[in-house]
Each structure stands twice: as structure tokens, then as C-alpha cells.
């Protein structure tokens, strides 16, 4: 259990690299040592890099992410993933596997998942979620 820990979803990492939504300042304020990423996020970023017009540039950006945040392995969360995937399928509300794996990682470790993809991740029961891409207190974030 990691108290005051934040698991940054892939979209948040991309926005961080773009300097959007004051994420650099937000992460500094909560301390980057409290921020983590899943191995799945690295896989998604690598796919994005390979699928881009400039793979070398994007691979180097992945290095920035890897140097900033601790990477959480997915093996320990596979039972949580399987339980959530089965529950969502039974309810008729399946999610993409990578979304479930990232959500299950946050759930297993007691982390708050930071994402702009709240529509999907809010379906994972008891998962703490924050969206840092929306304005807080009428503050314009871009």
C-alpha cells in the first residue's frame, strides 16, 4: 500500500512531455517521488513512438519519463486485473486490457490514478482517480 502515491496514466505522461496543464508544476508540488508509472504506460509510449513520424525523438522522450518516475511492474497485480476484467465483462461494460491493467495497478497498490480518461477508469470499483487535465478553481491550465 502506497499512501499519497499517484500512478500517472499514459495520457498524463504525454501531456507532461508537452508541458500542458501545468503538470510539471503539479508534480513538483506533490513531489515527483510520489509519482509512478506502470510498465503498461511504457509499452503504450513505445508503441506511440514506433507509430510516429519521428520514432527517435519520441523514444528519447520516453527516457525522460523513465528518469522522472518510478516504474511499477504489473506481475503482482495480475489477479486484480483478472478479477476486474471478469467483473466488467459480466456487467457488459468491458474495457481495453491496458486500461484495466493500469487501473488494477493503482487499485492493488492503493494509488490514485491520474488520468484524463476518467470515463473508462471510473468503472473499476474502489479505484481512486484524479483528472489533472481539468481546471481547478476556475484556473486555466493550458
Describe the structure in brief.
The chain has helices spanning 10-18, 23-30, 39-50, 55-68, 78-91, 97-109, 118-121, and strands at 6-8, 35-38, 70-72, 112-114, 128-130.
Topology of this protein?
Blueprint: E1 6-8, H1 10-18, H2 23-30, E2 35-38, H3 39-50, H4 55-68, E3 70-72, H5 78-91, H6 97-109, E4 112-114, H7 118-121, E5 128-130
Parallel strand pairs: 1-2, 1-4, 2-3, 4-5
Helix pairs in contact: 3-4, 5-6
Task: Output the keywords.
alpha/beta; Rossmann fold; 7 helices; globular; 142 residues
Q: What this model shows, in words?
A:
The chain is of the alpha/beta class and about 140 residues long. The chain has a single domain, classed as 5'-nuclease (Rossmann fold), CATH 3.40.50.1010. The chain contains seven helices and five strands, in the order βααβααβααβαβ. The protein has helices at about 10-20, 25-30, 40-50, 55-70, 80-90, 95-110, 120, and strands at about 5-10, 35-40, 70, 110-115, 130. Strands 3-2-1-4-5 form a five-stranded parallel beta sheet, sandwiched between helices. Strand 4, helix 7 and strand 5 (about 130) form a beta-alpha-beta unit. Helix 5 crosses helix 6 (about 95-110). The radius of gyration is 15 Å and the shape is globular. The mean pLDDT is about 90.
